[in-house]
């Protein structure tokens, strides 16, 4: 017959003097000479040989406190020094590094220094392309005939017979109409403005937007451009005495005027070249020649503004003004009809023929 030990009621009495917060024990019957004590597992159950330096350091600290205060429960709290970030010694990894402690803590075994993973991008230094002068000189030689539309109907030809102030305004109006429009269409619209006496800001603000739109049609987005032209004319009258803005920032503040237009107006109207005028065609040709790259990479640019910034890093400033009329005349839809003229030069310079 199996006989169990029946606990006495006294075994369940709570004695606050005997209770310990650090361990969980179970009282066995007092009448028995055998007691079984169950203890919770501790992080210190592993041997010191299996501990890393940080665990050994913390274990020693806890044991010192337990020796001085036996009844005190001590938890393992990381040292604040473990989380200190030293920007001069941090390495590009997520691991920790044991470093010597400071002179004020020579007695301590050392500290753990948390390192930081740094994501870095390899920057590529891009300089002037090889043989660019010969290539640009070859393209200029193809432009000597002056037969491209930009030579006779470009924005710089607007108001050529007018006084300087009126000519500057005509250049601004022509430039605002030129976006996504061929030179022939833009030139014809400027001529209609001139025939109706509208190449003057004081005259443009009088008719309504619909009248202006009908005059510049079929310019691309003619209704929106007519509104922008009228608003720009009001600003010219109110802020600049009937003249156009003479700074890049003021030109860019006009609705319908982007970076390409602003740089073009500054170069033509004010003879003050502050940047390269880059339109869609100059952007494509520059990439085709392999002359432009995105910042810090060897990848092609994706916008005309990226192309402008890339060109300005290496192209000499005296080439900034003629660069657009030199390269921009090679229109995508005109490339193949003139390919027979371009082929000898482009083959000689080892350039690609098609987009």
Q: Would you mind describing this structure in some detail?
A:
The chain starts with 52 loop residues before the first helix and ends in a 7-residue tail after the last helix. Helix 11 (280-288) crosses helix 12. The model is unreliable at 22-26, 28-41, 87-96, 101-116 and 332-340 (pLDDT under 50). It is elongated and about 120 Å long. It has a two-stranded antiparallel ribbon with strand order 1-2. It has helices at 53-68, 132-142, 149-153, 164-178, 183-195, 201-204, 209-216, 222-240, 248-252, 259-268, 280-288, 304-312, 320-327, 339-348, and strands at 96-99, 111-114. By secondary structure, the chain is an all-alpha fold.
Task: Please give the count of helices.
Answer: 14
Poorly predicted spans:
22-26, 28-41, 87-96, 101-116, 332-340
Q: Characterize the largest beta sheet: strand count, sense, and whether it forms a barrel.
A: 2 strands, antiparallel
Strand content: under 5%
Shape: elongated
Q: Tell me the strand order in the biggest sheet.
A: 1-2
Please tally the β strands and state the result: 2
Q: Helical residue percent?
A: 40-55%
Structure summary:
With 355 residues, the protein is an all-alpha fold. The chain is built from 14 helices and 2 strands; from the N terminus they run H-E-E-H-H-H-H-H-H-H-H-H-H-H-H-H.
Q: Descriptors for this entry?
A:
355 residues; two-stranded antiparallel ribbon; 2 strands; mainly alpha; 14 helices
Write the layout of secondary structure elements.
Layout: H1 53-68, E1 96-99, E2 111-114, H2 132-142, H3 149-153, H4 164-178, H5 183-195, H6 201-204, H7 209-216, H8 222-240, H9 248-252, H10 259-268, H11 280-288, H12 304-312, H13 320-327, H14 339-348
Antiparallel strand pairs: 1-2
Helix pairs in contact: 2-14, 4-5, 4-10, 7-8, 11-12
């Amino acid at each position: 017959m199996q006989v169990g030990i029946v606990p006495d009621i006294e075994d369940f009495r709570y004695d606050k003097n005997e209770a310990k917060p650090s361990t969980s024990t179970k009282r066995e019957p007092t009448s028995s000479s055998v007691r079984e004590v169950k203890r919770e597992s501790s992080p210190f159950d592993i041997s010191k040989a299996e501990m890393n330096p940080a665990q050994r350091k913390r274990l020693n600290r806890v044991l010192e406190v337990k020796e001085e205060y036996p009844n005190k429960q001590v938890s393992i709290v990381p040292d604040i020094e473990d989380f200190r970030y030293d920007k001069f010694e941090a390495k590009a990894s997520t691991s920790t590094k044991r470093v010597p402690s400071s002179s004020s803590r020579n007695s301590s075994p050392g500290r753990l220094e948390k390192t930081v993973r740094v994501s870095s991008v390899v920057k590529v230094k891009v300089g002037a392309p090889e043989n660019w002068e010969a290539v640009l000189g070859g393209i200029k030689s193809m432009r000597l005939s002056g037969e491209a539309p930009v030579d006779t109907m470009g924005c710089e030809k607007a108001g050529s017979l007018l006084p300087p102030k009126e000519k500057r305004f005509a250049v601004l109006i022509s430039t605002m109409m030129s976006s996504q429009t061929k030179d022939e269409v833009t030139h014809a619209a400027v001529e209609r403005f001139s025939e109706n006496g509208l190449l003057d800001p004081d005259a443009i603000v009088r008719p309504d937007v619909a009248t202006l739109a009908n005059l510049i049609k079929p310019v691309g987005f003619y209704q929106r451009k007519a509104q922008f032209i009228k608003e720009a004319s009001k600003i010219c009258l109110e802020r600049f005495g009937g003249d156009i803005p003479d700074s890049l920032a003021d030109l860019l503040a006009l609705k319908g005027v982007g970076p390409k237009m602003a740089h073009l107006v500054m170069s033509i109207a004010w003879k003050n070249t502050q940047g390269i005028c880059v339109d869609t065609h100059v952007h494509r040709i520059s990439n085709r020649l392999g002359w432009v790259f995105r910042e810090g990479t060897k990848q092609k640019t994706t916008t005309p503004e990226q192309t402008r910034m890339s060109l300005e890093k290496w192209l000499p400033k005296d080439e900034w003004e003629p660069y657009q009329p030199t390269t921009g005349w090679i229109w995508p839809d005109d490339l193949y009809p003139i390919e027979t003229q371009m082929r000898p030069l482009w083959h000689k310079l080892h350039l690609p023929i098609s987009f």
